Amino acid sequence: MVAEIRPKTGAQTPDRLKLSLAPAPASRAADLRVLHIGKYYPPYRGGMESHLQCLSDELNGMVDLKVIVANAERRTMKAVIDGVNVTRVGKFCEIKSAPVCPALVREIRRSKADIVHIHWPNPTAVLAYLASGHQGRLVFTYHSDIVRQRMLAVAFTPILRHALKKAAAIIVSSPNYIESSDILSEYRSKCYVIPFGISVDHFDQYDQKKVCKIRERYGPRIVLGVGRMVYYKGFEHLVRAMKLVDGHLIIIGNGPLREHLGQLALECGVADRVAFLTEVDDVRPYYHAADVFAFSSVMRSEAFGIVQLEAMACGKPVINTQLNSGVTFVSPHGVSGLTVPPADSGALANAINQLLDHPHRRAELGTKAKMRVANQFTVEKMVQRTFQLYQHIVRQNGER
Fold first, then answer.
1. Residue 8 lies in a domain
2. What pairing do the DSSP bridges indicate for beta strands 115-120 and 98-100?
3. What's the pLDDT tens digit per position in 375-395?
4. Is residue 7 part of a domain?
5. 98 DSSP 8-state letter
6. What's the number of domains the chain is made of?
7. How many Å apart are CA 25 and CA 119, to the nearest integer?
8. Could you count the other beta carbons within 10 Å of the beta carbon of residue 363?
């Protein structure tokens, strides 16, 4: 018998999860069939998509893995991407950012997976799973609540609760998010904290010549922001902050607010010191060229912030915002950077100036930031913990 590892109250911590699970026989692990269901898959860019690809790349081979996501067009396409079997199901339309894929029910039903792993928020995927009648064990990675689309959240919450009740486990990226989510707090006993991770080695490999060119072009005081130009990223506050900062701001990304942000930079008189880069193949030289990484999100739609990890892996201190989510779990104030109130351009500017004006403090926080990623947020730890959780779920099922 396997000892119960889930306490009656409180979420399961990563360390206890690791210590509590004995390895499953290799043959049994290799035969384990896992189906991941996400919204989209790279080259589509987004935090959920990056996480899904990273996790799939590493789990593939450890388990028999398949991925189902939405396609950008109406036809269904199958491909093998870096060894991972990916099915892009034809998309009919989008409702409140949720892809509607009529064939998704059929694709899930055809799957013979032992574990179905849904990446939430994705309401149509949950509906499709429930409609499919699939008998595999259900796992959620709960990336975030539905925050902005309040009507959708209200309408869908009963269905989500039904699915979470069926779930064998709910993976959450930080303990902070469990505490702040009205939904997750009801299912604490099913929650397992498995922080998202990145490849630290990948960010140690970069083109130094490109770093020098970036420094030559933008000068010695560079602030970097990375992310989609959408409402919850708070880039407008970062642009306004530059009125009080002697330096250059580079924002890498694209999105519906691109033109608005460019116009705002003109209105603030900082357009000559703010660069918007929408097409960057390799962001690593920019991380290494920057002095400070600014993470200016304003809503708890920002549940974690993987780009914080990327900057930290490059030895850069992070300036983030005090959100009721996992953002400060990634980079705590005074440990790997500074934390300021959200939507406060003055506070952002003050924090940026503190680090730009004090290179020793900046270097100290940057060194601690890199150590924090290496100790707590590696892809190896994330994959190991996820794999062990799968093993535990299968053993539990076999004992019933």
1. no
2. unpaired
3. 999 999 999 999 999 999 999
4. no
5. E
6. 2
7. 27
8. 14
